[in-house]
Every structure is written in structure tokens, then in C-alpha cells.
Amino acid sequence: MELFFRSFFVIFIGICFCWLLRIVLFRTGFVFVVKKRWRNLEDCFHVYQSFRIPEFNQSSQQNHLYRKVSAYLTSLSSLEDSDFTNLITGNAPNDIILRLDSNQTVQDNFLGAKLLWTNEENGSRNFVLRIRKADKRRILRPYLQHIHTLTADVIEQRKGDLKLFMNSKPNNQSDTRWKSIQFKHPSTFDSISMETDLKERVKSDLESFLKSKQYYHRLGRVWKRSYLLYGPSGTGKSSFVAAMANFLSYNVYDIDLFKVSDDSDLKLLLLQTTTKSIIVVEDLDRFLMDKSSTLSLSALLNFMDGILTSCCAEERVMVFTVNCKDLVDPAVLRPGRIDVHIHFPLCDFSAFKNLANNYLGVKDHKLFPQVEEIFQNGASLSPAEISELMITNRNSPSRAIKSVITALQTDVERRRISSIGRRLSDCGSRKSVAESVESGGVLCSENTQTGKELRKLYGFLRMKSNKISQTFDTSPMRKDS
Ligand SMILES: Nc1ncnc2c1ncn2[C@@H]1O[C@H](COP(=O)(O)OP(=O)(O)OP(=O)(O)O)[C@@H](O)[C@H]1O
Ligand SMILES: [Mg+2]
């Protein structure tokens, strides 16, 4: 009996000990420490071979394998076991993606072999793959093939997602010069109000460019096309670039030339762009007029010509926007450097009707003849100004059109005042010439007369401006009338 109790007691103590040990091992993470130490010990008896996959190749162009490995690693379930990972939101609203942090390692297994990936980030970005030497011959090629097939789908899927790249100030030459975000601009050719015929011509020009690889190569030319979009501010140039990107499904590289440090930096930026992309230089005229730039004109011309190598300008569309074409050196705009010039004018009546249709859903309105008449009197506003008025008053088309009429009338007055101002200054300069010859009585009396007229118009203009600011009041109390 005593023996029975004794053995029962020993079994009971044994069970309690195991239970406690389990708690200690799992609750404290002791098991992970043991596993890690065991792995390190095991590694001491194996020789590993390393393979580095840099983000850029020797000629500073993107290494596609790096992109594939990056996509592959995010799909690894073992990433959750890594000591340090970044959590990033994905494309879908509830999507959360794990991304390996810098200088962290993740383990993968393939055909019974252990593979270690490290994300190296010391100035440049690389992935380092470590495989046991004993497994290398058997594993390396099939493993890379496996990554290629797995990521092909993911990358193909992501092709639909366009990206907007922006250049930053250079910190380190080996560092990537482009930062990207998702490009989700809603602008399309349909949403842009411009002459239908012109729009169709641009569309077919882009379509024929897409199909012309052989043609360009036969002629010994780089397969690229350059567009100059010129016109006053707010006429839709930037929106048009976004529409082009959406139409072509191309990524957008938006180069800020003020952030380019020198000629070689501009070359590097071009080298780091990928095919099927639009390279945009906004406000080229503003940049060319700025004399403080360290960038030479010849570097800019070479950049536009894409002569660096055919591979870094191939299958690219270049777009330059300017407000005033006349301020740009003709060498920059010569045929071949710029293939297509597209003018973005201020609104006329037909553009207004287009905007009214798009923004207010109105094809015709009793106020249209009045609007047409004001346009005929020389009034003009940018599409941006008109579309803003329409958006503000979108609940009432009549109110929206009236606010446009008021703004157009103010524009007419503004133009009259500025023409009077010009006459005044002409008058002043003529007077000073006249005074040097004789005392110019006639010129003086004209001056006083014009001054009176100017004051009268200024008062009128102020009254009109007050009216316009009222149209922005979207309070429901306002009556349509
Ligand atoms: N032709 C147009 N059709 C439809 N909307 C337009 C048009 N032009 C301008 N807009 C509207 O005005 C806003 C400003 O346009 P955008 O930025 O494209 O002008 P921009 O010509 O690039 O001006 P800037 O020269 O000042 O950069 C946009 O949000 C767009 O919706
Ligand atoms: Mg713009």
C-alpha cells in the first residue's frame, strides 16, 4: 500500500513538473531562445555561400531581380517570425503587408534546404541570400526559378497600379534618387475639356507611338516621344499629363529640376527610370529663366534627346509644361527634341459648355446666350477658375452659371482697366518725351481724363469683386435668383 502511494506521489510530482516546465518554456519564450541557440550551433558546422542582389546594377539601372525578391519576401509566412518587421498597409482597405526591416534576416525552406535572406541597407539597398554550400548546386537554380514564377503573377497584378516617382535632393550617390507613391489621379481624356479634334489627335498619336517600336528602331531612333504642353496657368496641363498616364498605363516620373544637383545627377535620374513611363518636367520656362541653377543647358538638351543609351530612354514619353513658350530657348523646342506641341488656351464658349456639361450636367441653359456674348466681348477665364465656380455652386446650375457670368464681366473690366493703364503709361512716357521738347498741354489733359475714367472703373470693379465673393457663399439660404 505504501509503495502504491509512493509511486502515485512520484507520478503526481512528475506531472506537476512537466506542467510547470511547459509554462516556463512557452510563456517566457525560453523555447525560442533554445531554438535560436541550437540553430547558431548547427550553423557552426556548415559552410554558407552568400549571394548579393543589389537594387541597381553597375550602370545604375534598376535590377529587376531585386524587385522580384522584395515581392517574394513579403509573401513568406516565416516573415512573421523575424525579430523585426515593418507593417505597411496594402492596396486593399484592410490589407496589411509585412516587410523585412533593414539588416534583419528571414528564413525560407525549399526542397528540404534552409535559405537565409538578409535585407542589407547601408547607403545602398541589397538582399543577401545565404545557402549551405552542400545545397547550392541542387537548390540555387530551381530556387531562383521558383521566385521568378511566384512573383511573376504578383508583379503582373501590380502592373495595374501606377506609381508616381519624385526626385529628392541627393544625399548619397549610391542611394536611390526616386521616392515613389501610388498614382491614383482620376483625370482622364474624357474629364478634360479641350477641342475634341485635338484630343482625338493626341490619343491616336499616343496609340501609334505604342505600336511603333520596330519603326523607330528601323530608323535608328530612340523609341520615345516628347510633348510640350504650353498655356496659361490653370488650363489643364498637369491634369492632361495625368490623363496621358492613365491612358497609357505608364508610371510617372516627375522631375523637379531645382532638386537636381548637377549634370551627372540628371543622367543618374534618367538611368534610374524604368520603361513604360512618362517623364515630366513641369514649368520648364521658370527653370530656364532661373540663373542660379547648377545644371547646364547642354545636360538638359542631352536629357531631352535621350542619347545616354538607348536603353534608358526607350519606351518613354517625355512631357514638358510651360506657361509661355516664347520664353524658352528655341534650341530646347526644336523638332526632334519636342515632337508635339499642344496649346492649352483660356476658356472660350465651347470649352465653357464642355465644363458645364462635365461639372453641372447641363448641356443647354437659358443663360448660355448671355455667356456667349460675354466671351465674344473678349472675356476669358482659365478652366480652373470656371471649374472652381461650378464646383462651389454645383447644387444650382443657374447660380453656377451666374457666378461665371459675374466673373467674366469682372474679367472684361479688368482688361479694360489694364488697357487704360497701358494707355496711361504710354501717355506718361510720351509726356516726358514731349516735356523735354515743349510743355505738353494736350497730353496732360488726356492724362486727367483717363485718370477719372480709371477711378470710375476701379469702383465698378470693386463692386463686381464683392459680388463674386458672394457667389462662393454656399449657404442654403441663398436663393437661386
Ligand atoms: N481643360 C480643363 N478641363 C477640365 N478641367 C480643367 C481644365 N483645366 C483645368 N482644369 C481644372 O483646373 C484644375 C487645375 O488644372 P491644372 O493643374 O491641370 O492646370 P495647369 O495648366 O497645370 O496649371 P499650372 O500652369 O498653374 O500648373 C484641375 O483640378 C482641373 O480639374
Ligand atoms: Mg500644372
UniProtKB/TrEMBL annotation:
SUPFAM superfamilies annotated for this entry? Answer: P-loop containing nucleoside triphosphate hydrolases
**InterPro entries tied to this protein:** AAA+_ATPase, AAA_N_dom, At3g28540-like_C, ATPase_AAA_core, Mitochondrial_chaperone_BCS1, P-loop_NTPase
**SMART domains, per the entry:** AAA
Q: Cite a single Pfam family from the UniProt record.
A: AAA_assoc
Where the record annotates domain AAA+ ATPase, the positions are: 223-348
Entry keyword set: Hydrolase, Magnesium, Membrane, Transmembrane, Transmembrane helix
- Transmembrane residues, as ranges? 6-33
Q: Which cofactor does it need?
A: Mg(2+)
Under catalytic activity, the entry for this protein gives:
ATP + H2O = ADP + phosphate + H(+)
State the Gene Ontology terms under molecular function: ATP binding; ATP hydrolysis activity
- Output the Gene3D superfamilies linked to this UniProt entry: 6.10.280.40, P-loop containing nucleotide triphosphate hydrolases (3.40.50.300)
Q: What Gene Ontology biological process does one annotation of this record name?
A: response to stress
| Family stated for the protein in its record | Belongs to the AAA ATPase family. BCS1 subfamily.
Q: Which PANTHER family match?
A: BCS1 AAA-TYPE ATPASE (PTHR23070)
**Annotated protein name in UniProt:** AAA-ATPase
Organism from which the protein derives? Cucurbita argyrosperma subsp. sororia
